[in-house]
Amino acid sequence: MANKLVDAIKDKGKNLEAEMSFFEHLEALRWHLIRSVIALLIFTTLAFYFSDFVIDGIVMGPRSKDFWTYRMMCKLGTALHMDGWCFEGFKQKMIATELGANFNLMINICIVSGLILAIPYFLYEVWKFIKPALHEKERKAASGFVLYASGLFLLGVLFGYYIVAPLSIRFLIGFKVSEQIETLIRVDSYMSTLTTLTLGSGIVFELPILIYLLASLGILNAQLMRRTRRYAILIIMIISAIITPTPDAITMSVVAVPLLLLYEVGIWVAAGVGKRREKKTQELMNS
Question: Which residue ranges traverse the bilayer (predicted)?
């Protein structure tokens, strides 16, 4: 009877310890979220302080003929002796159709800008949260998570802003089904398209990180990716054609090539993870 009582007390102590550990994790997660929100507020405030430059220089940049992408396209078209590559900017007016549209636009632009700037810090907080649960070897293997994930995301945002967004917006604004229809662009529609294409590109560029995680879990491997390469190429070409619905293959290739390179980098990452898994398995069998 006494032994049963002692065992019950021990089990109760283990349960209390587990519950305390669970609540400690919740408390740690709460502070990670609080710090992330504070970082977002700081970067959003910073974007609001420089709102004139953010709106006129960055958000409205792809409307100007002096935008970097259009100047490079004009130079490339001249070098290749191809007409239609030089762009004179958008002549269509941008309108606000609601009373608070300009105010809402200001808030949305500042929040999106703050979000993009805060992504590296968000990733740092994610790393700090999961780091205690990792073994020493796992910590060393994933030590560059924040740097690589942040770099890929920012690279994708730049690619989306300078390549995907201007090419897509140029086509969509210039496309007409009839000369009797005058194009008036709602400013919130323009902002939504620019944001979607830019942030979408940033997320797509995280593909090597996703492949690393899937390979680490044993869901994906380099052999499977090599076997399905032809299907991946087909899907990437379809995505590139949708993103840049222009008739020339050169413009589509500008979008497709970086995505193909990301897929090849993903194969290399998966192969590296596979070798480490095989080495770890061999060490366990030898021990």
Answer: 33-51, 103-124, 145-164, 197-219, 231-247, 253-273
